[in-house]
Automatic annotation (TrEMBL), chain A:
Cofactor descriptive note: Binds 1 [2Fe-2S] cluster.
MF-aspect GO terms: 2 iron, 2 sulfur cluster binding; metal ion binding; NADH dehydrogenase activity
Keyword Oxidoreductase: yes
Protein family according to the UniProt entry: Belongs to the complex I 24 kDa subunit family.
NCBIfam families named in the record: nuoE_fam, PRK07539.1-2
Gene assigned in the entry: nuoE
Organism classification: Bacteria, Pseudomonadati, Bacteroidota, Cytophagia, Cytophagales
UniProt-listed Enzyme Commission number(s): 1.6.5.11
Pfam families attached to this UniProt entry: 2Fe-2S_thioredx
Protein name: NADH-quinone oxidoreductase subunit NuoE
Residues that coordinate or bind [2Fe-2S] cluster: C91, C96, C132, C136
Entry keyword set: 2Fe-2S, Iron, Iron-sulfur, Metal-binding, Oxidoreductase
Cofactor(s) this protein cannot do without: [2Fe-2S] cluster
UniProtKB/TrEMBL annotation, chain B:
Recorded name of the encoding gene: nuoF
Keyword Membrane: no
Pfam families: Complex1_51K, NADH_4Fe-4S
Protein name according to UniProt: NADH-quinone oxidoreductase subunit F
NCBIfam families named in the record: nuoF_fam, PRK13596.1
Organism taxonomic ancestry: Bacteria, Pseudomonadati, Bacteroidota, Cytophagia, Cytophagales
Automatic annotation (TrEMBL), chain C:
Localization per record: Membrane
GO cellular component: membrane
Phylogenetic placement of the source organism: Bacteria, Pseudomonadati, Bacteroidota, Cytophagia, Cytophagales
Domain named 4Fe-4S His(Cys)3-ligated-type: residues: 97-136
Domain (2Fe-2S ferredoxin-type): residue spans on this chain: 7-96
Gene3D superfamilies in the cross-refs: 3.10.20.740, 3.30.70.20
Protein name as it appears in the record: 2Fe-2S iron-sulfur cluster binding domain-containing protein
Record organism: Spirosoma sordidisoli
SUPFAM superfamilies linked to this entry: 2Fe-2S ferredoxin-like, 4Fe-4S ferredoxins
Residues in coiled coil: none
Length: 166, 446, 357
């Protein structure tokens, strides 16, 4: 894996403009504050947070690559491995489980034929187990990108998967 | 009709837009504060209101504001903690999503009171769609002259920045949040120095919860005394309660502090009772960190009086028979719930969310989870119960931040009140590990 | 003891009074009294800015905050970061709660530690070994699998054994403060945290070897010394040379006539006083390269001089023992309305008012 010389990843012009806008939010010299937003931007474009992408972000913020690795690996939202087209992040925490989450998630795994942390062979779905998503009254819950899917049942899960598989 | 301070207009169609919010009396508090009040006067009203931090710690907000250091020539910051991640809590999510301008109005008032010209709203990254809602609302407010340079001709400037988190419960701890906002790992800082002296970028900083900041609009409009007149004793005002679990009507409710727990669970206005055909077994009253209580102690104090939804009444009895109001994450368990499984679940949460900086939390949370996993899966020993209490005790109070306590309390309290259930798991592993098996021994169901 | 100067602060630790400059931490004040009283420090490292507060080994109880405000502090505090106040009373070894907490910290640190001292190069000069000798137990209550890590290669000079790491962050601060570029750091979080470069990279700069000296355990060791000897069979000698890069002041570790290891010099708290360059450390191992100053002063209590752990080696003086014996712990008037497991009454909750229906 080479990371020297030119970055192999480039933000689109629109995103580059967004990068400038984000960096300008913080006081002079505090551009490292833009790291988390930039990593979100990177993942939005690339689908995951690759080492090349992290090196690129480091170069944009003028910080050492290790500072980016340290941060990206601390937070759970950054996928450090390639993922499928749809990443289903289901909440495994208490309140969702009280509302039957464990059964629903078992059905979800069975339906997709994968376990948590895996991606379907066709590259369509990745399953990720996450902690509380702050929607406990509407559990069980999962999230795909920015969208919350609430009050899940086995039937509802099938509908969602059918819809996304089209 | 109970007083609604935050949610009175939340169901008005289009309330998320500036115009509708304004039509409902929105931003009048900003006008009042900026045009007719001094920052000190605003602080004074918030102090009089006695509003306590709604993120969980319950520290008086006015007092926190008064600790803010004000050295010459150094910027001050207000940071709104919208990292809501405590299991059982979803009130800030609800508030920001539905009525974003209320938070923005509160941010303007609070920033003005503290003399901050750049303020941040740190929202957990999972709520990206809420971030878009807030950013849109901020753009609207700015276009109408309520943000930016020389707001309403008052000479006061304010810029609001919405910052996304990256997925870490620990960033709800205020110093971890500041680290994260500086683009670092969410490792809590050792205190002192406190953020009021050295916070964001080493400048004096106040960190307040979404709900706390949102109250300031009402306080400015109606006065601190009016606010203090609502509620009970030192638990002034209203509180958003996130109700979940085995109740008929889960959701977010704004209550006047002092409502009996029993009424909150059973009245149609709120939770609407335990789901049909089931009985009330246990309650986590303030988010997963607070001690769990069996049904009888949840409803009644040790002296037989009714327990109320207030800071004082919920913590009555200390660790022996009480709990805490915390963030208001109200999780109700009926008799089908397995306390051991739930304790393991919560324990796994804290293990997963420990930042790993200090040894008691890093190692102890994992240890507790593993032992609980063993007990839940039929491999427990009788001595495991005392081991868990001892590990919890060695974590509690010995860590850099309160996550250690938050991890220790659910375990120690579950064992304290449901020891027989743990014993049953250990002595009847075959029975206890059957799918859906639940302890049916003697206990106080309501 | 010198005469009382008005600007000095008086602090009492385990019944022994000491006067220190304002800004001094409790740990530094205790070190001023001596090694018998100094709390253990696994992560704090005086020469490194920002270190401390993490391991919780140095927790003490502040029984009285100051002369002006004699209230006790509600929780045990990290002595490495807590500044003393005038009139402060600190309980260290005289407080059972402190000892209990420290025993807990050792237990936590050893949970996932491989306990491979017999094959570890650090044995005999390991802070964790010392700490465990003082506060640990011979048995474990941990039945679970120990944590393991993928191997991470840091280049030709430095060997990383992540399983031994206690995440003190000293090596991270060293790289930040002593070297020109940091390529390693702490990745992941919680008990999955690890020291790593993420993408395999050698730590390569003139001062990188110092991470070995600051490591309190055998997580970072010298590849050029790997498995060569046990430290208690070697003879340390202070030496120096004209070095264009660093001070050139080192300790040479001899086996017979052969220099088998070069390290920076350490003070009695095992802290490096002057960091050295990699050329001195790894590439300059002939006696003829050095001007010998004489044998390194080694504490009588050290395994290096005694060849074994000696419980009797550090003995408080008569005065110190008397002070500790006469010291009466100040009663903890904890606010009992405060929520805490510690205040749990011994009997468990039995039958209280029931609202059964």
């Amino acid at each position: 894996m080479t990371t020297e010389s030119k970055p192999t990843i480039q933000f689109t012009p629109e995103r580059l403009a967004k990068v400038q806008e984000i960096i300008a939010r913080y006081p002079e010299g505090k551009q490292k504050s833009a790291l988390l937003p930039l990593l979100h931007l990177l993942q939005e474009q690339e689908g995951w947070t690759s080492p090349e992408g992290m090196d690129y972000v480091a170069s944009l913020l003028n910080i050492e690559p290790i500072e980016v690795y340290e941060v990206a690996s601390f937070y759970t939202m950054y996928h450090l491995q390639p993922v499928g087209k749809h990443v289903i992040e289901y909440c495994r925490t208490g309140p969702c489980c009280l509302m039957g989450g464990e059964e629903v998630y078992a059905h979800l795994k069975q339906r997709l034929g994968i376990d948590t942390g895996q991606t379907t062979v066709d590259g369509q779905f990745t399953l990720k187990e996450v902690e509380c998503l702050a929607a406990c009254g509407m559990g069980p819950v999962f999230q795909i990108r920015e969208k919350y899917y609430m009050h899940l049942t086995n039937e509802r899960v099938d509908e969602i998967i059918d819809e996304l598989s089209k | 009709m109970a007083t609604k301070i935050l949610t009175e207009h939340i169901n008005v169609p289009g309330i998320e837009t500036f115009d509708v919010y304004r039509k409902q009396g929105g931003y009048t508090a900003v006008e009042k504060a900026l045009k007719t009040m001094t920052p000190e006067a605003v602080v004074e009203e918030v102090k009089k209101a006695g509003v306590r931090g709604r993120g969980g710690a319950g520290f008086p907000m006015g007092m926190k504001w008064s600790f803010l250091a004000k050295p010459e020539g150094v910027p001050r910051y207000l940071v709104c903690n919208a990292d809501e991640s405590e299991p059982g809590t979803f009130k800030d999510h609800y508030l920001m999503k539905n009525i974003p301008h209320l938070l923005i109005e509160g941010m303007i008032i609070s920033s003005f009171a503290l003399g901050a010209n750049k303020s941040f709203i740190y929202v957990r990254g999972e709520l990206m769609y809420v971030i878009h809602i807030l950013e849109k609302a901020i753009a609207e407010a700015k276009a109408k002259g309520f943000l930016g340079k020389n707001i309403l001709g008052s000479g006061y400037d304010l810029e609001l920045v919405v910052q996304p988190g990256g997925g870490a419960y620990i960033c709800g701890e205020e110093t971890a949040l500041l680290e994260s906002l500086e683009g670092k790992r969410g490792n809590p800082r050792n205190k002192p120095p406190f953020p009021a002296v050295k916070g964001l970028y080493q400048s004096p900083t106040v960190v307040n919860n979404v709900e706390s900041i949102a109250t300031t609009a009402w306080i400015v409009n109606n006065g601190g005394d009016a606010y203090a007149g609502i509620g009970i004793g030192r638990s002034t005002g209203t509180k958003l309660i996130s109700a979940s679990g085995h109740i008929n009507k889960p959701g977010v409710y704004e209550i006047e502090l002092g409502v009996p727990v029993e009424d909150f669970i059973y009245a149609d206005e709120w939770c609407g009772g335990i789901r049909p055909g089931h009985k009330f077994k246990a309650l986590v009253a303030g988010g997963s960190s607070v001690p769990i209580l069996p049904a009888n102690l949840a409803l009644t104090l040790a002296n037989g009086e009714k327990r109320l939804m207030s800071y004082e009444s919920l913590s009555d009895g200390g660790f022996a028979t009480g709990t805490m109001l915390g963030s208001g994450g109200f999780i109700v368990f009926d008799e089908t719930s397995c306390i051991v499984r739930n304790t393991w679940n919560f324990s796994r949460f804290y293990h997963h969310e420990s930042c790993g900086q200090c040894s008691p939390c890093r190692e102890g949370t994992g240890w507790m989870e593993k032992v609980l996993h063993r007990i839940e899966h039929g491999h427990g020993h009788q001595h495991d119960i005392d081991l868990l209490v001892d590990v919890a005790r060695k974590i509690e109070g010995n860590t850099i931040c309160p996550l250690g306590d938050a991890a220790a309390w659910p375990v120690a309290s579950a064992i304290r009140h449901f020891r027989d259930e743990f014993m049953w798991h250990i002595t009847n592993p075959q029975e206890a590990t059957q799918p859906g098996a639940v302890y049916r021994g003697e206990m106080a169901l309501v | 003891m010198e005469e009382t100067k008005p600007q000095l602060l008086r602090v009492t630790i385990d019944g022994i009074q000491v006067e220190v400059e304002p800004g001094t931490t409790i740990l530094q004040a205790a070190r001023k009294i001596g090694p018998e009283v100094a709390p253990p420090a696994m992560c704090y490292y005086q020469p490194l800015k920002g270190s401390g507060g993490k391991c919780r080994a140095c927790l003490v109880r502040v029984a009285a905050g100051s002369e002006k405000d004699p209230r006790p502090m509600p929780k045990l505090v990290a002595s490495c970061l807590t500044p003393v106040q005038d009139g402060m009373i600190v309980e260290n070894k005289t407080n059972p709660q402190v000892i209990d907490a420290r025993n807990g910290v050792v237990e936590f640190l050893l949970l996932n530690h491989p306990l491979d001292c017999p094959v570890c190069d650090q044995a005999g000069e390991c802070d964790l070994q010392n700490f465990a000798f003082d506060h640990g137990k011979a048995t474990t209550r941990y039945e679970e699998d120990r944590r393991t890590f993928e191997k991470n290669d840091l280049g030709p000079y430095i060997q990383l054994h992540m399983t031994r790491c206690i995440l003190c962050y000293r090596c991270v601060y060293t790289a930040d403060q002593i070297t020109n570029k940091r390529v390693h750091g702490v990745l992941n979080r919680g008990d999955a945290s690890e020291i790593s470069t993420y993408i395999e990279k050698a730590i390569d700069n003139d001062f990188s070897g110092n991470v070995i000296d600051v490591c309190p355990v055998g997580a970072l060791t010298d590849k050029t010394y790997r498995f060569k000897n046990r430290v208690w069979f070697t003879k340390p000698v202070d030496a120096h040379r004209d070095c264009p890069t660093c001070s050139g002041k080192v300790t040479l570790w001899y086996r017979g006539d052969e220099v088998i290891r070069v390290t920076a010099r350490k003070n009695e708290w095992s802290e490096v006083t002057e960091f050295i360059c990699n050329t001195c450390r790894f590439e300059t191992k002939k006696t003829s390269d050095w001007t010998i100053e004489g044998p390194t002063k080694v504490s009588r209590a050290s395994v290096i001089s005694a060849n074994k752990y000696r419980a009797d080696a550090i003995k408080p003086s008569f005065g110190q023992r008397l002070a500790a014996a006469e010291y009466k712990p100040i009663h903890d008037e904890r606010d009992t309305t405060q929520l805490s497991i510690q205040q749990l009454p011994p009997e468990r909750f039995a039958k209280l008012p029931s609202a059964e229906s």
